[in-house]
Amino acid sequence: MLKERNKSYKTIKFVDISSDDYSPEENHGLDYETAMGRIHAIQSDGTVVTDVEAFRRLYEEVGLGWVYAITKYEPVATIANAVYGVWAKYRMQVTGRPSLEEIFEARRKNRGEVCRDKSANV
């Protein structure tokens, strides 16, 4: 819906984080797993916003700021971010897809990457 609405505004640059061409370096160091974990928006001044604030800013860019306007105020902001946090973590399973962990592991295997235990002393 935002992409369609943005055709008139041309204010949002959408980035496909799953593309082989995706470059964390060109996106403030946001690697695939970080970007996939929660929504991120990089503003024109380079500020990175996440969670409900990212949605609010995106909707404002296409003239629909009123949809998320109430999330600017407490305690709504805190509640909205808590709800979003749960949604972000479980959205894949809720929508009938593999968990984020399974998706990350499959991506590593497809790319020939080795998953290393960061806590191991080698």
| Physical arrangement of strands within the biggest beta sheet | 1-2
How many separate domains make up the residues? 1
Strand content: under 5%
Note poorly predicted spans. 117-122
Shape: globular
How many angstroms separate the termini? 48 Å
Query: Helix content range of the residues, please?
Result: 40-55%
Radius of gyration: 17 Å
Q: Which structural class fits the helix and strand makeup?
A: mainly alpha
Helical region count?
5
What value does the average pLDDT take?
91
Number of strands: 2
String of helices and strands: HHEEHHH
Major sheet attributes: 2 strands, antiparallel
Task: Compile the SSE list and pairings.
Blueprint: H1 2-9, H2 32-37, E1 40-42, E2 48-50, H3 51-61, H4 76-94, H5 100-110
Antiparallel strand pairs: 1-2
Structural account:
The chain is globular. Strand 1 and strand 2 (48-50) form a beta hairpin. 45% of the residues lie in helices and 5% in strands. Mean pLDDT is 91; it is low at 117-122. The chain has helices spanning 2-9, 32-37, 51-61, 76-94, 100-110, and strands at residues 40-42, 48-50. It is mainly alpha-helical and 122 residues long. It has one domain (2-110).
Highlighted features:
5 helices; 122 residues; DCC1-like; globular; disordered C terminus; DCC1_Trx; mainly alpha
